[in-house]
Amino acid sequence: MKYRNLGRHGLKISEISVGTMFHGSYIPREDSTKVLAEALNQGINFIDCADRYGIFDSELDSDKRLRAEIILGEFLKDYDREDLVISSKVFYKMRESPNSGGLSRKHIREEINHSLEYLQTDYLDMYFCHRPDRDTPLEETIAVMSRLVDEGLIHYWGTSWWPPVMVERTIALAKEMGHHPPAVEQPPYHFNARFIETDLFDVANYHGLGITAFEALSGGFYTGKYINGVPEGSRGSKTHFVTQERLEARREQLQKLIEIASSLDIPLCQLALAWVLRRPEISSTIMGASRPEQVVVNAGASDVMLDHDILDQIEEVLGNKPVSQFR
User: Fold this and answer.
1) What is the pLDDT of residues 72-119, one digit of tens each?
2) Whether pLDDT at 305 is above 80
3) Is residue 326 part of a domain?
4) Residue 327 domain-assigned?
5) Which long-range contacts (CB under 8 A, 24 or more apart) does 191-196 make?
6) Which of 64, 145, 178, 319 could form a disulfide with 157 if both were Cys (CB 3.0 to 4.6 A apart)?
7) Does 236 reside within a domain?
8) pLDDT computed for residue 324 by the predictor
9) Are the beta carbons of 23 and 68 closer than 8 angstroms?
């Protein structure tokens, strides 16, 4: 496993990291523990979580849902916390109350306490504002997140899926206020979600911002396992990532990408992850896995280098390279 700095910050994180979005819901506790153990065995040191992971899916009965932070906290007791990079997120409503949710001082303070309790740790390495909150003054959010850094409860704070212009505004405002600016942004990024290439990469390069991208496999779509259809009862059938309509629309593209991967003697999932990592602005790509063997294969993408010829072939197949309207 290779490691990269979080932008121009000193923190080093594994190129491939593991997310816990479905841990506690579609991925039960026992399977989650096996996945996390194999991730660490593969040299992965960054585990990404959020306060709502495991409990957000209303399609599952409440007795079949468990907060992912609880599972992760129990898991961490058997490992050296100092060797790991743990993140969580705050924004979404956690209960029916007018002050639950958003990025107010009150909600952030409540949720950092809950997250630390459930994760059974004294600090988070990264703490993300899960989405923008347009009902709370940006100054208030910046001040409380910066204060958490000063108190040692978090080491870095960041944003997740924020518009690049808002990320840059936040960095500038934080510096103007004398506070710690966000150090990392977490957006989706995969073969057919490339919007961050036009603006966010520029912001990251200028400010030294780290990027921990998610959805490189688009919920399993870019593993190729659904090319012949979405089996009833599969994870793909239970989430919005893989639909029959999407499969039909992109079947030819998917087949050509599989052929490129085969020419390199690697699976499509490794091609997809390595393609994301081709950009130096990416600090880490967060993968999801429901079984340990998937972790092993995905982690192997850290050793895959794509030359210019292969990248040109992929670009020709995709035909979607974003072009900024400003030249």
Assistant:
1) 999 999 999 999 999 999 999 999 999 999 999 999 999 999 999 999
2) yes
3) no
4) no
5) 191/218, 191/222, 191/253, 191/257, 191/272, 191/275, 191/314, 191/318, 192/218, 192/250, 192/318, 192/320, 193/218, 194/320, 194/321, 194/322, 195/322, 196/164
6) 145
7) yes
8) 72
9) yes
Two tokens at 185?
């942004």
Q: Whole domain around residue 62: which residue ranges?
A: 3-318
What gap in Å lies between CA 83 and CA 153, rounded to an integer?
17
What digits encode the pLDDT tens for the residues 126-178?
Answer: 999 999 999 999 999 999 999 999 999 999 999 999 999 999 999 999 999 99
Q: Is 325 contained in some domain?
A: no
Count the neighbouring beta carbons within 10 Å of the beta carbon of residue 152.
9
- 209-220: pLDDT as tens digits: 999 999 999 988
- Residues classed as catalytic: 53
Question: The domain spanning residue 123 has which CATH number?
Answer: 3.20.20.100
- Which amino acid, 124? L
Q: Of 218, 214, 82, whose CA–CA distance to 158 is shortest?
A: 214
Cβ atoms of 73 and 81 within 8 Å: the answer is: no
Task: Report the number of distinct structural domains present in the chain.
Answer: 1
Is the confidence at residue 327, as pLDDT, over 60? Answer: no
